[in-house]
Amino acid sequence: MIFLDAAATTPVRREVIEAMFPFLTNQFGNPSSHHELGEAAATALATARQEAADVLGCHAEELVFTSGGTEADNLALKGIALARRVADPRRTRVVISSIEHPAIADSADFLRRIHGFAIDVVPVDADGLVDPATFAEVMAGGDDVAISSVMYANNEVGTVQDIPALAAVATAAGVPLHTDAVQAGGWLELAPARLGVAAMSLSGHKLGAPKGVGLLYVSSGVQMEPLIHGGGQELGLRSGTENVAFAVALATALRLGEAGRGAAVERVMALREDFIATVLARIPDAVLTGHRTRRLPSVASFCFPGTSGESVLLELERRDVICSSGSACAAGSDEPSAVLIAMGLERGIAQTALRFSFGADVTAAQLGGAAEELAAAVERVQKLGAQR
Ligand code: PLP
Question: Which pLDDT value is given to residue 16?
Fold first, then answer.
């Protein structure tokens, strides 16, 4: 099988399993317990937090372990919006981009429906990029904005935003910028201070850690209300007995990912370029979606007019090539991708989208084979469509 759906999830790395194993077995303590077993767990958690902070170049106290990218996004958007409006009731607006993951888009909608915030959506261009000047216009001074959020790299087309430029706009307006960096993990620069963001979400399972663990960075100067109340763990920002093993797993995966990032980016980017060139040459009406160069090294996404993405996906699966139509998070719905619609694609074309996303260990042989199978699958689906 050729697995080209790494943006949906990745297998857990062996080193990560080994690092977390003791905390699932003999070192199973609760970090809040005042005995040796508990203290060992607390130490492991603190070490994991410091290790993650070292990778991100931030303070350990600025990191909150969560149950995943979704929870990190929810906590950032809702927690910061609510805290900042309490501090200043004029801050009743939330600004997000038009291509956010549902974890942000639906959190914004919740803030509108239940808490009365106004939501302003910043459009993207045909490549999926937010123009900093447009962002500045929507922020309009920023006095009434509680929080803004623009994702770092898009999960469907891989377009990478100019986060430092957007963060400069937000900072000038006195508004915290949150970025969903779930897809950027392992591929792009993650230091929040260098990006200029006030908050940033990460997810373990895109990085070789298990599903069900994530991380939220929140700059020490930014107020945030917790969403989960209880025993006051995670500096009071996320109550509940900590998942020590998964925190260790995430920190280990982050450290390994960062150590191998430079080499992986160079190698995979070259393979991605070859793959894109081969697909565009072999399938004449194929359209690359997302920005031509400002894209994740690991993502190639296309539309294939005259097909349906779902049919080509199934045809490819029969040929042992695994990819994604739309994003897995939105899978199960027939609606064309909201991201592609926001980028200005027609509904009919958006329904023909497929995403190929690569792990750091992808090979030239796999991608060469996948491109051949893809050309055959698209041809077959187009022919079947024409006969109907
Ligand atoms: N944000 C983005 C951009 C994603 O791609 C995903 C998952 O695909 C998430 C958030 C959600 O992360 P998790 O699956 O860890 O909840």
Answer: 98
Residue nearest to atom 2 of ligand 1 (CA): 182
Distance CA 180, CA 189 (A): 13
What integer pLDDT is reported at residue 386 of this predicted model? 82
Q: Which atom of ligand 1 is nearest to the CA of 8?
A: 8
Distance CA 288, CA 291 (A): 8
Tell me whether residue 329 is one of the annotated catalytic residues.
yes
CA distance 243 to 387: 55
**For residue 73, which atom of ligand 1 is closest to its CA?**
10
- Going from the Cα of 7 to the center of ligand 1, the distance in angstroms, rounded, reads 9
pLDDT of residue 332: 53
Q: Which residues of the chain are modeled with pLDDT < 50?
A: 328-329, 331
Distance CA 294, CA 317 (A): 29
Joined together, the tokens standing for residue 379 give 């041809």
Question: What residues line ligand 1, using a CB cutoff of 6 Å?
Answer: 68-70, 73, 101, 103, 151, 155, 180, 182-183, 203, 205, 214, 329
Q: Can you read off the two tokens belonging to residue 268?
A: 């995979």
Q: CB atoms < 10 A from the CB of 108, how many?
A: 22
For 215, the 3-state DSSP assignment is strand
Give pLDDT, residue 349: 95
- Whole-number Cα distances in Å, 225 to 62, 143, 240, 285: 14, 20, 15, 50
Q: pLDDT digit string (tens) for 294-349?
A: 999 999 999 999 999 999 999 999 999 999 997 544 545 568 999 999 999 999 99
What are the angstrom distances between the C-alpha of 77 and each of 27, 156, 176, 177, 327?
Answer: 35, 21, 10, 10, 22
Q: What pLDDT shows up at residue 333?
A: 58
